[in-house]
Automatic annotation (TrEMBL):
Chain residues that bind Fe cation 1: 87, 125, 128, 211
Keyword Nuclease listed: no
Any one GO biological process: fatty acid biosynthetic process
Keyword Plastid attributed: yes
UniProt binding sites for Fe cation 2: 125, 178, 211, 214
Protein name (record): Acyl-[acyl-carrier-protein] desaturase
Organism per entry: Dioscorea zingiberensis
Family: Belongs to the fatty acid desaturase type 2 family.
Pathway(s) of this molecule: Lipid metabolism; fatty acid metabolism
Taxonomic path: Eukaryota, Viridiplantae, Streptophyta, Embryophyta, Tracheophyta
Amino acid sequence: MKPKMSKGDKSHSLTQEKLEMFRFLEGWAEENMLTFLKRVEDSWQPQDFLPDASSKSFTDEVQDIKARAEGIPDECYVCLVGNMITEEALPTYQSLLNSFDGTRDETGVSMKSWARWTRSWTAEENRHGDLLNKYLYLTGRLNMKQIEKTIHYLISSGMDMKAESSPYLGFIYTSFQERATFISHGNTARLAKVHGDVTLAKICGTIAADEKRHEMAYTKVVEKLFNVDPNTTMVSLADMMRKRITMPAALLYDGQDHNLFNHYGAVAQRIGVYTTKDYGDILDFFLERWRVGEITGLSPEGREAQEYVCGLAERIRKLEERAHTRSMNKRSQMMPFSWIFNREVEV
């Protein structure tokens, strides 16, 4: 059976009127979005958290990292590596941001506010993968070549956020995704602290704080879109939720495990790094933040979309409960992960 297409399931769907609206919002983005960025001189850098290779104490500091690493369980490393690889696929995400009609960087050096946001957001995000990659390398617990191959495969594969070149869909996606990564890195920080690596906990917490700041920027954009064009924004929200927010690393592959993303996701679900419940909580958060249920004056299509999204969180809760029941009843399965030299982890 051919899959049912969403009503807006096509590329470059923005009318000239909508494109003009995003051009009109350039000034708003300058004053309300770019303010969430930090100057380079005011920003942390990976080296702030890493041993200085030019220092006489470098070897001792690396040994300290390796000693602390012994206390981190393999299941936590699977999640840490999955998070890090997701961050390392940054070229894909910048390419996708530059696919949005009306907000893309047309020249590569455009000084328009949307373009400056994309480049500066990318620069801030770039530090995340750099820092995690270097720190995890120093632990000595990981098969770095397999991790590097996974990054290579993932960037080569790309991703489909199903945004159809629409900034409405794209900014809804990025709002959800930034909040998801904020939660995932925050929970990983908590686990690192529990297992005795305070430095790793600080690293993950610092990255989570960046994700939260970026979430606030994208959330404000969608809030503005609900204000100036509530009907299109509501329909876009329902469209994106029907498609479901696809994780950036959905095409994860290491050259061995063709189901690697699901196995990584199962570990993250089991140890509480990122769960189905979190997905429902994120939807609840944005429904309240954007006051979706209070918006009036919508078209029949808009009201139908509003009814759908406002009832969706409860359906997700029921699905989560059923999934939890199934997981409690299923026999545990051990799965080797090439990232940790094929040591087995429960999924």
